[in-house]
């Protein structure tokens, strides 16, 4: 049952409506004028407001409609009048009223039906809000959103390792949100009260990065006019985030390894070390195992950094996250730019889902920010999206692979399921090889949707783990 506010300046009608609505089990409050109604609305929450249009003294029912619909959780509104006009009805609807009802001999019958409808609508909205909140809670980690299985696994892993002091290696393409994950780990750890110091290892000249990390003594090199602490000192009691760790010069890697092992730092030009208490989170868009094999990254440093590895999938491999991310960015920038846009048209969403986003989440955010800045209506349309995001033509399905039928059929027969399974495995392997490991491209080569490809890939990984894919 709902909570209803009845506003009418005629006490007899007010009392009659209270009895009528309360008979259906609703809790009813009444107000005789605009001032009383606004006072009650400021103090209490309601599911429905039933107000007369003409209220004396001090205003009319439109003031009540506007006040009710401005609430954080606005109630539904029914406007009643004995002097109905089309213009007033349109204005009431424009201000947010659900129904506009003319007083007459059928008022009680009509109102009984409309109240039931309005209360049911409000109950459904509350239920939907609760479901949305629960969905957002499950699909959000400190502002990072995702509903794909891959991202939910990332959220779970982050929640488990954040409270520990284990070093973490975050692996993913540019734009997948590696630094944001690092910040979440820090904020959910017992070091949250300490500093989080970021450093892009590829942005500092090679001859300065050692001093930047570990500090230096006065006179250690030309221009060192005073002693200076490094970023490890600045991060004492907190976390240091080493982004693009694969760019760290090979000559400096043993020094970083020693800091990780001994938790002691030796500034450039110093003769003594001092202790530091720092958790290290590193990130890279490189394949560090390949870098180790090529001799460009120390294996012992790789294992020291990679106590726990978090793999962030590219956006093209989790298309189910695109709508959730797009609406999150839409809400953010609509508020920031004070634009009325609140939804995305089906055609615009189709274009977003069809695009590969080589720049990943960062690129999607930029696309939505641009679209919101250009939007003039409540719905973001494809006209606001970059022309480079036009939907590609449907690719030709691959030609059928010829299978030799020259071999005689074995006397002992064949296991057809196993034969087909093996053949499918070979084709998937070759498609992945041809696509350079890019799963979306491999799916295209096989004429499959990405969802179909992922299902088949998971099936073979589950049933034939020893063969590997």
Briefly note the CATH topology name of the largest domain. Rossmann fold
**Domains counted in the coordinates: how many?**
4
Can you tell me the overall shape?
A: extended
Average pLDDT over all residues: 86
Number of helices: 18
Helix/strand/pairing category: alpha/beta
By CATH, the superfamily of the largest domain comes out as P-loop containing nucleotide triphosphate hydrolases
Query: What is the radius of gyration computed over CA atoms, rounded to a whole number of angstroms?
Result: 32 Å
Question: Which ranges are low-confidence, i.e. pLDDT below 50, for 5 or more consecutive residues?
Answer: 393-397
The total beta strand count reads: 18
CATH class call of the largest domain: Alpha Beta
Give the termini separation: 57 Å
């Amino acid at each position: 049952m709902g909570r209803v506010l009845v506003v009418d300046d005629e006490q007899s009608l007010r009392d009659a409506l209270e009895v009528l609505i309360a008979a259906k089990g609703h809790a009813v409050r009444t107000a005789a004028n605009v001032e009383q109604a606004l006072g009650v609305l400021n103090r209490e929450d309601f599911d429905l407001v039933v107000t007369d249009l003409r209220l004396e003294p001090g205003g009319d029912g439109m003031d009540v409609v506007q006040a009710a619909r401005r609430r954080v959780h606005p109630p539904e509104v029914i406007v009643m009048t004995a002097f109905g006009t089309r213009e007033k009805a349109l204005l009431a609807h424009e201000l947010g009223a659900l129904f506009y009802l003319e007083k007459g001999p059928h008022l009680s019958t009509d109102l009984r039906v409309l109240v039931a409808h309005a209360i049911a609508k409000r109950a459904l909205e509350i239920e939907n809000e609760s479901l949305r909140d629960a969905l957002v809670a499950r699909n959000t980690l400190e502002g990072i959103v995702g509903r794909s299985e891959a991202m939910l696994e990332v959220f779970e892993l982050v929640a488990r390792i954040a409270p520990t002091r284990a070093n973490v290696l975050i692996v993913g393409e540019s734009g997948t949100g590696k630094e944001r994950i690092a910040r979440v780990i820090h904020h959910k750890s017992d070091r949250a009260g300490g500093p989080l110091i970021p450093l892009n290892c590829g942005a500092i000249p090679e001859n300065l990065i050692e001093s930047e990390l570990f500090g230096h003594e006065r006179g250690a090199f030309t221009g060192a006019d005073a002693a200076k602490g490094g970023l490890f000192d600045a991060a004492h009691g907190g976390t240091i985030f080493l982004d693009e760790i694969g760019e760290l010069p090979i000559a400096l890697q043993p020094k970083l390894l020693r800091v990780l092992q001994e938790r002691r730092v030796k500034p450039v030009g110093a003769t003594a070390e001092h202790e530091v208490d720092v958790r290290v989170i590193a990130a890279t868009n490189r394949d560090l195992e390949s870098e180790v094999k090529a001799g460009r990254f120390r294996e012992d440093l790789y294992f020291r950094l990679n106590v726990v590895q978090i793999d962030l999938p590219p956006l093209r491999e989790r298309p189910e996250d695109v709508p959730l991310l797009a609406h999150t960015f839409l809400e953010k920038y609509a508020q920031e730019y004070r634009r009325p846009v609140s939804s995305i048209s089906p055609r615009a969403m189709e274009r977003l889902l069809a695009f590969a986003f080589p720049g990943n989440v960062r690129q999607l955010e930029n696309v939505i920010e641009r679209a919101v800045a250009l939007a003039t209506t409540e719905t973001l349309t494809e006209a606001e999206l970059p022309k480079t995001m036009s939907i590609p033509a449907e690719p030709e399905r691959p030609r059928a692979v010829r299978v030799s039928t020259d071999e005689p059929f074995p006397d002992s027969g064949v296991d057809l399921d196993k034969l087909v399974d093996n053949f499918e495995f070979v084709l998937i392997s070759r498609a992945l090889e041809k696509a350079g490991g890019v799963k979306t491209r491999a799916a295209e080569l096989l004429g499959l949707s990405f969802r179909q490809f992922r299902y088949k890939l998971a099936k073979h990984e589950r049933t034939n783990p020893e063969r590997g894919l």
